Amino acid sequence: MRSFAHDGTNASQAIASTRALGRPGREVLTNLLMRTALALFALFPMTLNSPAKAASATQSSLAFSITFATARSATPLDGRLLLLLSTDLAAEPRFQIDDSPKTQIVFGLDVANWKPGEARLMAASDPDIFGHPMRSLHDLKPGEYALQVLLDRYETFRRADGHVLKLPTDRGEGRKWNRAPGNLHSKPQKFHVDPAQPGRIALVLTEEIPPIPPPADTKFVKHIRLQSQRLSKFWGCPIYLGAHVLLPTGFDAHPDARYPLMVFHGHFPADLSGFRTEQPDPDLKPDYNERFRIHGYNRILQQEAYRFYQTGTNADFPRFLVVEIQHPTPFYDDSYAVNSANLGPYGDAINLELIPEIERRFRGIGTGWARFLYGGSTGGWEALATKIFYPDLYNELSFLSRQRA
Q1: Structural domain boundaries enclosing 49
Q2: Do 196 and 284 belong to one domain?
């Protein structure tokens, strides 16, 4: 019997991809799969790569020698070092790694106290290097590849529960290792790779992913970023929550009006989704969405977002605040919006800190009967959990999820 992740991916394949990306790279883990992966990590603890270990790698195997310059960091770095290989030259290898059958190849290794100019080795003979979709560098087929290396940088967290952890942190990207500002990477280079032939390939981390500018406020859409006292205390450093708030028509014209609140739960939103004041782009080339198996899905999104703007600004349309929240963690693009021993009090932080602050800033009614929860898929789980754990804070609930609750 095979087990599957929520999007139909074979569970063993999904676990392999997260193992290569490291503990913080569990972007495919949900529900039962998350627990399975945790068990796998207990059986296979990761070992940090060190210069002495790199030097001891056998000279008779294929190896990749990786360095970074002082210009990128004058201080030693910790992180997950990722070796990315692709046979598709249409895009950078770092953008071609996922949990689908079409994924390209990634191998991962934790590094600690990595100094500028110091070479770290990723050798085919090193059993601590774990790959996806293949386990070992020895399993690579000989051929031409676009090669790229990336360092997903770690920070040290001294948590209130006594644990000291080295993990990545969100920097505005929604915990995506291939887009996280501050992460270092090399430019893609084409090499012939043959695991059966000994030798070293030198790669240098010359690039740094730049900061992501925060989304700009508009007439209808506002943004909020709040440091959570509860989460900051738990993690031992400042932790922030965010939200995008859609204001109703007439918000500025009626300064004494107060509004009910609709909270949409889901994965990390870079900005408010489903609302567009510009007409759909007639020149937009239709794409194909593999998840929904629909051609022109990008055009449908624009059409529906513009239709909502037209409908929502009608004089007879109900007035309310619509909120999409940001709560990424070191492990995933959202916290599942509940308290947990692993992540800390995210449920309390969202519902007892963020939501009241949104209502204070944007004149929400501020009582349970005037709050509504909704979401789909993962967001459906989160909306349901919020209603269960905070029953008096919310009135209505609407959710859809094909995952088993």
Answers
A1: 11-208
A2: no
